[in-house]
Protein backbone atom coordinates (compact mmCIF):
# COMPACT_ATOMS: atom_id res chain seq x y z
CA UNK A 1 0.00 0.00 0.00
CA UNK A 2 1.32 3.41 -0.97
CA UNK A 3 -0.18 6.79 -0.12
CA UNK A 4 1.40 10.23 0.13
CA UNK A 5 -0.48 13.42 -0.71
CA UNK A 6 2.57 15.60 -1.20
CA UNK A 7 0.82 18.87 -2.04
CA UNK A 8 -1.31 18.61 1.09
CA UNK A 9 1.78 17.86 3.18
CA UNK A 10 3.55 20.94 1.80
CA UNK A 11 0.58 23.17 2.60
CA UNK A 12 0.38 21.75 6.12
CA UNK A 13 4.08 22.28 6.84
CA UNK A 14 4.19 25.74 5.27
CA UNK A 15 1.58 27.12 7.69
CA UNK A 16 3.00 25.63 10.90
CA UNK A 17 4.95 27.62 13.46
CA UNK A 18 5.92 24.74 15.76
CA UNK A 19 6.44 21.17 14.64
CA UNK A 20 7.29 18.09 16.71
CA UNK A 21 8.97 15.08 15.12
CA UNK A 22 8.44 11.93 17.18
CA UNK A 23 9.46 8.29 16.66
CA UNK A 24 8.84 5.00 18.39
CA UNK A 25 10.44 4.20 21.75
CA UNK A 26 14.22 3.74 21.83
CA UNK A 27 14.63 5.08 18.32
CA UNK A 28 16.62 2.79 16.04
CA UNK A 29 18.75 4.14 13.15
CA UNK A 30 15.85 4.15 10.68
CA UNK A 31 13.60 6.10 13.04
CA UNK A 32 16.17 8.70 14.11
CA UNK A 33 17.86 9.34 10.77
CA UNK A 34 14.54 9.45 8.91
CA UNK A 35 13.29 12.04 11.41
CA UNK A 36 16.54 14.00 11.11
CA UNK A 37 16.40 13.95 7.30
CA UNK A 38 12.74 14.96 7.27
CA UNK A 39 13.56 17.95 9.49
CA UNK A 40 15.68 19.24 6.60
CA UNK A 41 12.65 18.99 4.31
CA UNK A 42 10.60 20.92 6.88
CA UNK A 43 13.26 23.65 7.05
CA UNK A 44 13.34 23.88 3.25
CA UNK A 45 9.56 24.32 3.03
CA UNK A 46 9.23 26.51 6.11
CA UNK A 47 12.55 28.02 7.29
CA UNK A 48 10.88 29.81 10.19
CA UNK A 49 9.23 26.74 11.72
CA UNK A 50 10.47 25.66 15.14
CA UNK A 51 11.32 21.95 15.23
CA UNK A 52 11.45 19.70 18.29
CA UNK A 53 12.72 16.12 18.19
CA UNK A 54 11.07 13.63 20.54
CA UNK A 55 12.59 10.18 20.97
CA UNK A 56 10.54 8.47 23.72
CA UNK A 57 12.71 6.78 26.36
CA UNK A 58 15.86 7.88 24.48
CA UNK A 59 17.56 6.11 21.55
CA UNK A 60 19.01 2.64 21.04
CA UNK A 61 22.64 1.91 21.86
CA UNK A 62 23.45 1.33 18.17
CA UNK A 63 21.81 4.63 17.20
CA UNK A 64 23.89 6.41 19.84
CA UNK A 65 27.05 4.81 18.54
CA UNK A 66 26.24 5.88 14.97
CA UNK A 67 25.60 9.46 16.09
CA UNK A 68 28.91 9.54 17.99
CA UNK A 69 30.86 8.16 15.06
CA UNK A 70 29.25 10.64 12.69
CA UNK A 71 29.90 13.53 15.15
CA UNK A 72 26.23 14.43 14.83
CA UNK A 73 24.48 16.10 17.77
CA UNK A 74 20.67 16.14 17.96
CA UNK A 75 18.92 17.66 20.95
CA UNK A 76 15.73 15.82 21.83
CA UNK A 77 13.08 15.27 24.48
CA UNK A 78 12.58 11.80 25.93
CA UNK A 79 9.88 12.38 28.60
CA UNK A 80 6.55 14.27 28.41
CA UNK A 81 7.64 16.48 31.31
CA UNK A 82 10.30 17.96 29.02
CA UNK A 83 7.68 19.32 26.61
CA UNK A 84 6.85 22.90 27.56
CA UNK A 85 4.96 24.13 24.48
CA UNK A 86 2.11 23.34 22.11
CA UNK A 87 2.62 22.25 18.52
CA UNK A 88 0.72 22.91 15.30
CA UNK A 89 1.77 19.56 13.80
CA UNK A 90 3.10 16.30 15.15
CA UNK A 91 5.03 14.28 12.57
CA UNK A 92 5.11 10.62 13.61
CA UNK A 93 8.03 8.79 12.00
CA UNK A 94 8.62 5.04 11.61
CA UNK A 95 5.89 4.12 14.09
CA UNK A 96 3.31 1.42 13.38
CA UNK A 97 1.01 1.88 16.37
CA UNK A 98 0.34 4.51 19.07
CA UNK A 99 1.56 2.14 21.83
CA UNK A 100 5.05 2.43 20.35
CA UNK A 101 5.10 6.07 21.42
CA UNK A 102 5.30 4.94 25.05
CA UNK A 103 4.53 7.74 27.51
CA UNK A 104 3.78 10.00 24.55
CA UNK A 105 0.88 7.81 23.40
CA UNK A 106 -1.69 10.54 24.12
CA UNK A 107 0.57 13.35 22.89
CA UNK A 108 -0.77 13.34 19.31
CA UNK A 109 -4.36 13.60 20.56
CA UNK A 110 -3.63 17.13 21.78
CA UNK A 111 -2.60 18.30 18.31
CA UNK A 112 -5.04 19.12 15.52
CA UNK A 113 -2.78 17.89 12.71
CA UNK A 114 -0.81 14.64 12.55
CA UNK A 115 1.41 13.48 9.71
CA UNK A 116 2.54 9.83 9.64
CA UNK A 117 5.63 8.83 7.66
CA UNK A 118 6.05 5.08 7.88
CA UNK A 119 6.57 1.76 6.12
CA UNK A 120 4.75 -0.56 8.54
CA UNK A 121 1.20 -1.86 8.44
CA UNK A 122 -0.84 1.23 9.37
CA UNK A 123 -2.81 1.06 12.61
CA UNK A 124 -6.43 2.27 12.53
CA UNK A 125 -5.54 5.03 15.02
CA UNK A 126 -3.40 6.71 12.39
CA UNK A 127 -5.75 5.88 9.52
CA UNK A 128 -8.50 7.80 11.30
CA UNK A 129 -6.45 10.77 12.57
CA UNK A 130 -3.41 11.36 10.40
CA UNK A 131 -2.43 12.58 6.98
CA UNK A 132 -0.51 9.59 5.65
CA UNK A 133 2.77 9.35 3.80
CA UNK A 134 3.24 5.60 3.80
CA UNK A 135 4.64 2.80 1.67
CA UNK A 136 4.23 -0.66 3.15
CA UNK A 137 6.36 -2.13 0.35
CA UNK A 138 9.34 0.00 1.38
CA UNK A 139 11.96 -1.78 3.46
CA UNK A 140 12.69 1.31 5.56
CA UNK A 141 11.15 4.67 6.34
CA UNK A 142 14.38 6.20 5.04
CA UNK A 143 13.36 5.14 1.52
CA UNK A 144 10.15 7.15 1.82
CA UNK A 145 11.99 10.21 3.10
CA UNK A 146 14.54 9.92 0.28
CA UNK A 147 11.67 9.85 -2.24
CA UNK A 148 10.34 13.10 -0.74
CA UNK A 149 13.73 14.76 -1.26
CA UNK A 150 13.69 13.51 -4.84
CA UNK A 151 10.14 14.67 -5.61
CA UNK A 152 10.73 18.08 -4.07
CA UNK A 153 14.14 18.38 -5.78
CA UNK A 154 15.84 19.24 -2.50
CA UNK A 155 19.63 18.86 -2.26
CA UNK A 156 20.75 16.03 0.01
CA UNK A 157 23.78 16.96 2.12
CA UNK A 158 26.43 14.39 2.97
CA UNK A 159 25.38 14.07 6.62
CA UNK A 160 21.75 13.40 5.59
CA UNK A 161 22.89 10.91 2.94
CA UNK A 162 25.05 9.03 5.46
CA UNK A 163 22.15 8.91 7.91
CA UNK A 164 19.63 7.66 5.34
CA UNK A 165 22.05 5.03 4.05
CA UNK A 166 22.81 3.85 7.60
CA UNK A 167 19.05 3.65 8.23
CA UNK A 168 18.52 1.52 5.12
CA UNK A 169 21.44 -0.75 6.00
CA UNK A 170 19.99 -1.28 9.47
CA UNK A 171 16.40 -2.01 8.46
CA UNK A 172 17.36 -4.28 5.54
CA UNK A 173 19.95 -6.18 7.58
CA UNK A 174 22.65 -4.85 5.30
CA UNK A 175 20.57 -5.36 2.13
CA UNK A 176 19.65 -8.99 2.86
CA UNK A 177 15.91 -8.17 2.49
CA UNK A 178 16.30 -5.25 0.07
CA UNK A 179 13.99 -4.77 -2.91
CA UNK A 180 15.33 -3.42 -6.24
CA UNK A 181 14.14 0.12 -5.41
CA UNK A 182 16.06 -0.07 -2.10
CA UNK A 183 19.27 -0.75 -3.99
CA UNK A 184 18.63 2.04 -6.50
CA UNK A 185 18.06 4.55 -3.68
CA UNK A 186 21.14 3.28 -1.85
CA UNK A 187 23.26 3.63 -4.99
CA UNK A 188 22.15 7.26 -5.32
CA UNK A 189 23.00 7.93 -1.68
CA UNK A 190 26.35 6.21 -2.11
CA UNK A 191 27.18 8.67 -4.90
CA UNK A 192 27.00 11.37 -2.21
CA UNK A 193 28.58 9.39 0.62
CA UNK A 194 31.50 7.82 -1.25
CA UNK A 195 32.69 4.69 0.58
CA UNK A 196 30.15 2.09 1.73
CA UNK A 197 32.70 0.25 3.86
CA UNK A 198 33.11 3.27 6.13
CA UNK A 199 29.43 3.05 7.07
CA UNK A 200 29.50 -0.73 7.38
CA UNK A 201 32.29 -0.37 9.94
CA UNK A 202 29.90 1.53 12.19
CA UNK A 203 27.68 -1.55 12.50
CA UNK A 204 30.44 -3.79 13.82
CA UNK A 205 29.75 -4.10 17.51
CA UNK A 206 30.63 -6.58 20.22
CA UNK A 207 27.50 -8.15 21.66
CA UNK A 208 26.87 -7.17 25.28
CA UNK A 209 26.89 -10.09 27.75
CA UNK A 210 23.30 -9.26 28.77
CA UNK A 211 22.20 -9.75 25.16
CA UNK A 212 24.10 -13.06 24.95
CA UNK A 213 22.34 -14.27 28.10
CA UNK A 214 18.93 -13.26 26.72
CA UNK A 215 19.56 -15.18 23.49
CA UNK A 216 20.65 -18.31 25.37
CA UNK A 217 17.71 -18.11 27.79
CA UNK A 218 15.33 -17.85 24.84
CA UNK A 219 16.71 -21.13 23.54
CA UNK A 220 16.47 -22.79 26.98
CA UNK A 221 12.82 -21.74 27.50
CA UNK A 222 11.63 -22.39 23.97
CA UNK A 223 8.43 -24.25 23.11
CA UNK A 224 8.63 -25.75 19.65
CA UNK A 225 5.81 -26.39 17.17
CA UNK A 226 5.65 -27.84 13.69
CA UNK A 227 3.41 -26.86 10.78
CA UNK A 228 4.16 -29.25 7.92
CA UNK A 229 7.84 -28.52 7.20
CA UNK A 230 7.94 -25.22 9.11
CA UNK A 231 9.24 -24.93 12.68
CA UNK A 232 7.75 -22.31 15.03
CA UNK A 233 9.47 -21.31 18.28
CA UNK A 234 7.82 -19.43 21.16
CA UNK A 235 9.87 -18.28 24.15
CA UNK A 236 10.26 -15.48 26.70
CA UNK A 237 13.06 -13.23 27.93
CA UNK A 238 13.38 -10.06 30.02
CA UNK A 239 15.04 -7.92 27.33
CA UNK A 240 16.57 -8.00 23.83
CA UNK A 241 13.43 -9.57 22.36
CA UNK A 242 14.29 -8.93 18.72
CA UNK A 243 17.81 -10.25 19.13
CA UNK A 244 16.50 -13.37 20.87
CA UNK A 245 14.04 -13.96 18.03
CA UNK A 246 16.84 -13.69 15.47
CA UNK A 247 18.91 -16.15 17.50
CA UNK A 248 16.12 -18.74 17.34
CA UNK A 249 15.91 -18.28 13.57
CA UNK A 250 19.66 -18.88 13.38
CA UNK A 251 19.16 -22.11 15.34
CA UNK A 252 16.70 -23.40 12.73
CA UNK A 253 13.24 -21.99 13.50
CA UNK A 254 11.26 -20.56 10.59
CA UNK A 255 9.25 -18.27 12.87
CA UNK A 256 10.22 -17.10 16.37
CA UNK A 257 7.95 -15.32 18.86
CA UNK A 258 9.51 -13.77 21.97
CA UNK A 259 7.39 -12.56 24.90
CA UNK A 260 8.66 -10.14 27.55
CA UNK A 261 7.01 -8.46 30.50
CA UNK A 262 7.47 -5.32 32.62
CA UNK A 263 4.76 -2.65 32.86
CA UNK A 264 3.32 -4.10 29.68
CA UNK A 265 3.60 -7.42 27.88
CA UNK A 266 5.51 -7.16 24.61
CA UNK A 267 5.79 -9.68 21.80
CA UNK A 268 8.41 -9.58 19.08
CA UNK A 269 8.29 -11.94 16.11
CA UNK A 270 10.70 -12.64 13.28
CA UNK A 271 10.28 -15.02 10.34
CA UNK A 272 12.28 -16.23 7.40
CA UNK A 273 11.32 -14.98 3.95
CA UNK A 274 10.48 -18.51 2.80
CA UNK A 275 7.77 -18.86 5.46
CA UNK A 276 6.10 -15.60 4.43
CA UNK A 277 6.31 -16.33 0.71
CA UNK A 278 4.96 -19.88 0.92
CA UNK A 279 2.18 -19.27 3.45
CA UNK A 280 1.19 -15.79 2.29
CA UNK A 281 0.98 -14.69 5.94
CA UNK A 282 1.91 -11.10 6.75
CA UNK A 283 3.02 -11.16 10.39
CA UNK A 284 2.19 -7.52 11.09
CA UNK A 285 -1.26 -7.49 9.48
CA UNK A 286 -2.45 -11.07 9.96
CA UNK A 287 -0.98 -12.03 13.33
CA UNK A 288 0.32 -9.17 15.46
CA UNK A 289 -2.47 -6.67 14.77
CA UNK A 290 -4.98 -9.29 15.93
CA UNK A 291 -2.81 -10.33 18.87
CA UNK A 292 -2.44 -6.72 20.05
CA UNK A 293 -6.19 -6.20 19.89
CA UNK A 294 -6.79 -9.44 21.83
CA UNK A 295 -4.36 -8.27 24.53
CA UNK A 296 -6.08 -4.91 24.92
CA UNK A 297 -3.23 -3.09 23.17
CA UNK A 298 -1.98 -2.75 19.63
CA UNK A 299 0.20 -4.62 17.19
CA UNK A 300 1.57 -4.42 13.67
CA UNK A 301 4.75 -4.33 11.64
CA UNK A 302 6.21 -5.93 8.53
CA UNK A 303 5.65 -9.25 6.84
CA UNK A 304 8.80 -10.81 8.36
CA UNK A 305 9.22 -8.67 11.50
CA UNK A 306 6.46 -7.38 13.77
CA UNK A 307 5.44 -6.68 17.34
CA UNK A 308 2.52 -6.30 19.72
CA UNK A 309 1.86 -4.95 23.20
CA UNK A 310 -0.81 -5.56 25.82
CA UNK A 311 -1.60 -5.00 29.48
CA UNK A 312 -2.83 -6.99 32.48
CA UNK A 313 -2.17 -10.40 30.98
CA UNK A 314 0.34 -13.12 31.84
CA UNK A 315 3.11 -14.36 29.57
CA UNK A 316 1.55 -17.82 29.45
CA UNK A 317 -1.80 -16.37 28.39
CA UNK A 318 -0.03 -14.45 25.62
CA UNK A 319 1.78 -17.56 24.41
CA UNK A 320 -1.53 -19.41 24.23
CA UNK A 321 -3.08 -16.61 22.17
CA UNK A 322 -0.11 -16.65 19.79
CA UNK A 323 -0.66 -20.34 19.12
CA UNK A 324 -4.42 -19.82 18.75
CA UNK A 325 -4.19 -16.94 16.27
CA UNK A 326 -1.33 -18.45 14.28
CA UNK A 327 -3.00 -21.88 14.14
CA UNK A 328 -6.21 -20.42 12.76
CA UNK A 329 -4.37 -18.49 10.07
CA UNK A 330 -2.20 -21.44 9.11
CA UNK A 331 -5.24 -23.73 8.87
CA UNK A 332 -6.76 -21.28 6.38
CA UNK A 333 -3.63 -21.86 4.28
CA UNK A 334 -3.77 -25.66 4.61
CA UNK A 335 -1.24 -26.06 7.44
CA UNK A 336 -1.76 -27.70 10.83
CA UNK A 337 0.27 -26.93 13.97
CA UNK A 338 1.45 -29.74 16.22
CA UNK A 339 3.49 -29.55 19.42
CA UNK A 340 7.00 -31.01 19.35
CA UNK A 341 7.77 -32.53 22.74
CA UNK A 342 11.26 -32.16 24.30
Q: Could you write a compact summary of the structure shown?
A:
The chain has 342 residues and is of the alpha/beta class. The chain has 13 helices and 14 strands.
Return the string of H and E elements.
Answer: EHEHEHEEEHEHHHHHEEHEEHHEEHE
Choose one word for the global shape. globular
Number of domains: 2
CATH superfamily of the largest domain: inorganic pyrophosphatase (n-terminal core)
* Oligomer kind: single chain
Provide the gyration radius in Å: 20 Å
What structural class results from the helix and strand content? alpha/beta
CATH architecture of the largest domain: Alpha-Beta Complex
In percent, how much strand structure appears in the residues?
15-25%
CATH class of the largest domain: Alpha Beta
- Head-to-tail CA distance between termini: 42 Å
Largest sheet: 7 strands, mixed
Helical residue percent band: 40-55%
Indicate the mean pLDDT: 93
Number of helical segments with 4 or more residues = 13
Question: How would you characterize the overall build of this protein?
Answer:
- The chain has 342 residues and is of the alpha/beta class.
- It folds into 2 domains: 2-202, inorganic pyrophosphatase (n-terminal core) (Alpha-Beta Complex), CATH 3.90.1640.10; 209-340, Roll (Diaminopimelate Epimerase, Chain A, domain 1), CATH 3.10.310.
- It has helices spanning 6-15, 29-45, 61-69, 124-129, 141-152, 158-171, 180-193, 196-202, 209-220, 241-251, 273-279, 283-294, 315-332, and strands spanning 2-4, 18-23, 50-54, 76-77, 89-93, 113-118, 131-135, 223-227, 230-236, 255-261, 265-271, 298-301, 305-310, 337-340.
- The chain has a 7-stranded mixed beta sheet with strand order 1-7-6-5-2-3-4.
- Helix 5 runs antiparallel to helix 6 (158-171), helix 6 runs antiparallel to helix 7 (180-193) and helix 12 (283-294) crosses helix 13 (315-332).
- The longest helix is centred in the last third of the chain and has 18 residues, at 315-332.
- The mean pLDDT is 93.
